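Supplementary Methods, section 5.1.

A reviewer requested that the exact input to the structure prediction be made available. We therefore reproduce it here, unchanged from the version used in the analyses.
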Amino acid sequence: MKRILSLLMAAAKVTAISCSRHIPSNGNIAIIPEPSKVEVCEGSFNLSPETVIAIHFQNEQLPLATDFFNEVAQKTFGKTLAVVCGKENAVAENVINVRQNPSLPAEGYTLEVSPVSIEISAASAHGVFYAFQSLRQMMAPESLTEEHVGSVGIQAVKIEDAPHFPHRGVLFDV
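The structure derived from this sequence is encoded token-by-token as follows.
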């Protein structure tokens, strides 16, 4: 009986260690399309299942942007990140703050990743979506293929971006 319990405890430890694997940032900022301005900073943010997305403005399309990033979190951590609204639920650390900045272009955004938090500012939900796209591209590729990772390092960076042209389009030459 003791032997069986010892084997079960060892198996539980191996499972716990494999489930809490940290994937560090590789420091590579390869975002497509390339942002207008990128400034790499020291350190990295550890995105984990305990990270909270804090929304600080109202827009009916904002849930589409947070749902997109939560699909990434679901694949990586096996669960979605908590989404809180308003200043009454303010979190100081391990948070992705989403704020409105009307002075930015309609689909533009700023993304500031520090070791403590991630700050996204955008004029609209479209800008927030593109900021989350950039954040996803900054995650190590293995974090998107392995399941139930403990945390993922994201390089500290300051990004400013907006579309170069007012129209988006696709041309197929058959």
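Strands lie at 22-23, 37-47, 52-55, 82-85, 95-100, 109-113, 117-122, 151-161. These observations are discussed further in the main text.
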